[in-house]
């Protein structure tokens, strides 16, 4: 029997409504290029190796950045389905997701003007194992599509403030 | 001595200009929820475990989806700096990045109307180890900010087409 998140969602929602100043969560990643196109990224206690496939000049030591975007979208959909299915009392025995993105490499390589470097479009296929009615699943889907953080990030623009500064050479930053 | 990507970028750019139909690249991720809020995601030969921290109801078995977004942005900046520094002949001995995002949890938990579930804003701090002039680094930065795929994906909206279908129960989709 799977754990239900009904009380987790309800308690969290009540707490955030009572103290909205506690709703702000900050997330962080620290990365460095360790050789070739490879990056080692840390977020909390987790380390990720990111690289490019050989066709893009990399050493293929890990997924590439746009594949991480797809992984983020797939898993975020699944988490949001689980939380809101349980909160709504809609039975959901399983959820899986396939995400695909098409990209025009002329953007990254500056081979043509006016070609965006990011995905031109994404497709998401969600598979739901559920004994719920079609109407319940449609209701769940509507809620998930309004409240999934990564879906929101991709469908809508987000302000990004960038600073770039010169750093001193040091072993932590040396190219491999 | 680090490898230079100058010829990689130039050859790729020439190839994409000559045969723009080869510029289309498709990326894919397949994921399933394996228990609690945990997802196992596969992209090519790589497997990622995604989860939420205990404060958000998860088992903390991996980074969460929005942390993957930050990791993607950090590493994509670094890769784009490396490729274009080498292509432009601007010396760059090292690059590291710190990315931070602030999110209002009332969005995910549907605790308030009108609060977006995604990041409200992102900050990126890029550190460059380089003997280049300030003007060269500024030129490099301008090129990177126009051609970084993940930065583009976050700063701008992307069409997302979603289908959700009912699947048969099966071990591959069973909740843990």
What do you see in this structure?
Two copies of one chain form a homodimer. Chain A is an alpha+beta fold. In chain A, 33% of the residues lie in helices and 30% in strands. Chain A has four helices and six strands. In chain A, the strands form two sheets. A three-stranded antiparallel sheet of chain A has the order 1-2-3, with no helix packed on it. In chain A, strands 4-5 form a two-stranded antiparallel sheet. In chain A, helix 1 crosses helix 2 and helix 2 (65-88) packs across helix 4. The first copy, chain A, is globular and about 55 Å long. Mean pLDDT of chain A is 94; it is low at 170-176. Strand 1 of chain A pairs antiparallel with strand 4 (94-104) of chain B.
Overview in brief:
2 copies of one chain form a homodimer. The first copy, chain A, is an alpha+beta fold.
Most extensive interface, chain pair and sizes = A-B, 130 and 130 residues
| Number of distinct helices of chain A | 4
Quaternary organisation of the protein chains: homodimer
Span between termini of chain A? 49 Å
Q: For this structure, what is the CATH homologous superfamily of the largest domain in chain A?
A: K homology (KH) domain
Supply the CATH class of the largest domain in chain A.
Alpha Beta
Q: How much helicity do the residues of chain A have? A: 25-40%
Strand order of the largest sheet of chain A: 1-2-3
Secondary-structure class of chain A:
alpha+beta
Share in β-strands of chain A: 25-35%
* Overall number of domains of chain A: 2
* Main sheet properties of chain A: 3 strands, antiparallel
């Amino acid at each position: 029997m799977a754990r239900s998140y009904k009380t987790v969602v309800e308690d969290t929602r009540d707490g955030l409504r009572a103290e909205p100043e506690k709703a702000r969560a900050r997330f962080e990643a620290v990365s460095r290029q360790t050789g070739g196109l490879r990056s080692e990224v840390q977020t909390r206690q987790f380390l990720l190796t990111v690289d490019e496939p050989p066709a893009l000049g990399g050493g293929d030591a890990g997924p590439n950045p746009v594949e991480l975007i797809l992984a983020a979208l797939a898993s975020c959909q699944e988490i949001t389905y689980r939380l809101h299915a349980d909160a709504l009392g809609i039975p959901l025995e399983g959820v899986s997701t396939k995400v695909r993105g098409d990209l025009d490499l002329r953007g990254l390589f500056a081979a043509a003007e006016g070609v965006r470097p990011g995905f031109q479009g994404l497709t998401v296929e969600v598979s739901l194992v559920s004994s719920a009615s079609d109407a319940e699943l449609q209701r769940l889907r509507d809620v998930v599509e309004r409240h999934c953080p990564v879906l929101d990030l991709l469908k809508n623009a987000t302000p990004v403030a960038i600073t770039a500064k010169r750093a001193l050479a040091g072993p932590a930053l040396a190219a491999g």
